């Protein structure tokens, strides 16, 4: 039975207006839990160790948070929330066989720490890795413990723990690598 009119899609708010609405309804804490869920399910938390000739010891330890999605709106939600907390990530686009990927990255150590402290109470899957990063790796980097060979090896023990808990594949440089590299010096 036709009544002469075609059903219309109900007007739905943009993610930006829905985000603002959710935040204004005492959703500040809930939005932190929402962001934690996104990060738990789809983000990469890693600690990259690379050769860096101009670094004091010739190597560099860089924590990184990265979120890659085909849906730009999810990246926008995370970026908006982070900006409201004074955290500036970068957004890049990369073409892949399955379409455009939007990549959100935080590499500033202080901003990573702030971001993770905000969402840590709500994390489930990545909770243990984040605890090691927040309580062991980031403080050692902040305090310069990694600037000596023994301190670098000590920091690498915790980096390896984070990698084990996040199934990181970047294992060229490990605690054992540096123990061998600097044998007799540490």
Description of the structure:
The chain is of the alpha+beta class. It has one domain: Endonuclease I-creI (Roll). It has a four-stranded antiparallel sheet with strand order 1-2-4-3. Helix 4 runs antiparallel to helix 5 and helix 6 runs antiparallel to helix 7. The longest helix has 18 residues. The protein is elongated and about 85 Å long.
What's this, in brief?
This protein is an alpha+beta fold and about 190 residues long.
How are the secondary structure elements laid out?
Blueprint: H1 15-24, H2 28-42, E1 43-51, E2 59-69, H3 72-84, E3 90-96, E4 99-106, H4 109-119, H5 127-143, H6 149-166, H7 175-181
Antiparallel strand pairs: 1-2, 2-4, 3-4
Overview features:
single chain; 186 residues; alpha+beta; Endonuclease I-creI; 4-stranded antiparallel sheet; 7 helices; 4 strands; 49% helix
Low-confidence stretches: none
Separation, N- and C-terminal Cα atoms = 84 Å
Question: What is the number of independent domains?
Answer: 1
The number of distinct β-strands equals 4
Largest sheet: 4 strands, antiparallel
> Do you know the CATH architecture?
Roll
Q: Any idea of the CATH class?
A: Alpha Beta
Note the quaternary state here: single chain
Give the spatial strand order of the biggest sheet.
1-2-4-3
Tally of helical runs: 7
Please, what is the average pLDDT? Answer: 89
What is the CATH topology classification name? Endonuclease I-creI
| Class from secondary-structure proportions | alpha+beta
């Amino acid at each position: 039975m036709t009544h002469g009119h075609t059903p219309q899609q109900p007007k739905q708010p943009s993610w930006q207006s829905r985000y603002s609405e959710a935040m204004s309804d005492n959703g500040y804490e809930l939005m932190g839990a929402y962001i934690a869920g996104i990060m738990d399910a789809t983000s990469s938390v890693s600690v990259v160790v690379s050769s860096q000739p101009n670094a004091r010891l010739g190597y560099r330890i860089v924590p990184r948070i990265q979120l890659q999605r085909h849906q730009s709106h999810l990246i926008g939600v995370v970026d908006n929330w982070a900006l409201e907390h004074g955290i500036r990530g970068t957004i890049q686009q990369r073409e892949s066989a399955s379409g455009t990927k939007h990549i959100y990255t935080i590499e500033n150590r202080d901003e990573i720490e702030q971001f993770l402290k905000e969402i840590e109470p709500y994390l489930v899957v990545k909770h243990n890795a984040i605890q090691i990063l927040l309580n062991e790796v980031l403080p050692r980097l902040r305090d310069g413990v990694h600037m000596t060979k023994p301190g670098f090896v000590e920091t690498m023990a915790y980096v390896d723990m984070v990698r084990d808990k996040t199934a990181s594949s970047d294992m060229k440089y490990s605690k054992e690598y540096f123990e061998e590299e600097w044998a007799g010096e540490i």
